[in-house]
Design a protein that fits this description.
Lipocalin; eight-stranded antiparallel β-barrel; 11 strands
Length: 191
């Protein structure tokens, strides 16, 4: 009888782990609903705002296990402030050095949850050839069934503050502050 109970318990454990694994899904970034924006104070006066128009990536997400991995690439040559000469300067060696490092990459492998919702994603951001840890805090997160796509979509608003000097961007310090606010609106479609 003990062997039967042990075998039954082992089968139940395997079945449970299979169910947990079955909850894992891959989501592709929807570029039409994903925006990467930044804000910087301009010599202590107004706020300079810009964005990156080209981004792609995937998120592997398991709601039941409360785990995930985000792998997002940003084309820094697509920086846009609405002012062409400024965009050119931001692409130069003074800032993003886009000729040498055309892609920024975030790989987040630590998902923090508040109940059933993602509250933060921690990982590594590589920008300008330098890699540093970053935590993106969720100010909103939700999943829904998209009526047009007939698939689940998950996303939210995430933000962090970076010190650009940690990524080797020293131009204009201290007149242009070191702290840069990064705001990411993201939606990803279940594959």
């Amino acid at each position: 009888m003990t062997k039967t109970l042990t075998a039954a318990a082992a089968l139940a454990l395997l079945a449970t782990s299979g169910l947990s694994h079955a909850q894992s899904a891959t989501y592709a970034i929807d570029p039409t609903h994903t925006f990467v924006n930044f804000e910087a104070k301009h010599f202590g006066t107004s706020t300079l705002r810009g964005r990156f128009d080209k981004k792609e990536g995937t998120i592997n997400f398991d709601k039941a296990a409360k785990t995930g991995k985000a792998d997002i690439s940003i084309d820094v040559t697509s920086v846009s402030t609405g002012v062409a000469p400024l965009d050119g300067h931001l692409k130069s060696k003074d800032f993003f050095n886009a000729a040498e490092f055309p892609t920024a990459k975030f790989v987040g492998d630590q998902f923090t949850f508040d109940g059933g919702k993602v509250s933060a994603v921690t990982g590594l951001l590589t920008l300008n050839g330098k890699t540093n840890p970053v935590t993106l805090k969720a100010t909103n997160f939700n999943c829904y069934d998209n009526p047009m796509l007939k698939r689940e979509v998950c996303g939210g608003d995430f933000e962090t503050t970076l010190q650009r000097s940690q990524f080797g961007v020293m131009y204009g310090l201290p007149g242009i502050p070191d702290n840069i606010r990064l705001l990411i609106q993201i939606e990803a479609v279940k594959q």
